[in-house]
């Protein structure tokens, strides 16, 4: 979920493809969202002083993102020790 230095092409392709597949799975359901209401919300966000990097539109989408976030955090927690043990000693000292 985080792109790192010198990994931009990898991150763009991996996360782009991952997001595309997740989106296609959701395309099979009707959203029930009004196009005009969505368009107005997008314009308001675009005109705001600091538009968000990401925005989730609709209660169903918010619930889905929250569920995915919980899944990802549980995965990080489950592998935290194994993952953090891979850091270089000089990286630990700098942190």
Structure at a glance:
By secondary structure, the chain is an all-alpha fold. It contains 5 helices and no strands. The two termini are 21 Å apart.
Question: Strands, helices and their partners?
Answer:
Blueprint: H1 8-26, H2 35-47, H3 59-78, H4 80-84, H5 89-94
Describe the 3D structure.
With 95 residues, this protein is an all-alpha fold. Helices cover 66% and strands 0% of the residues. It has helices at 8-26, 35-47, 59-78, 80-84, 89-94. The model has no long low-confidence stretch (mean pLDDT 81).
Following the backbone from N to C, one meets helices and strands in this order, namely HHHHH
Measured as a percent range, the helix fraction is 55-70%
Low-confidence runs of at least 5 consecutive residues? none
Question: What is the oligomer described by this structure?
Answer: single chain
In whole angstroms, the N-to-C terminal distance is 21 Å
Structural class: mainly alpha
Summed over residues and divided by their number, the pLDDT gives a mean of: 81
SS elements, strand count: 0
Q: Determine the strand fraction and express it as a percent band.
A: under 5%
Shape: elongated
Specify the biggest β-sheet.
none
Radius of gyration: 18 Å
Q: What is the overall number of helices?
A: 5
Defining key terms:
95 residues
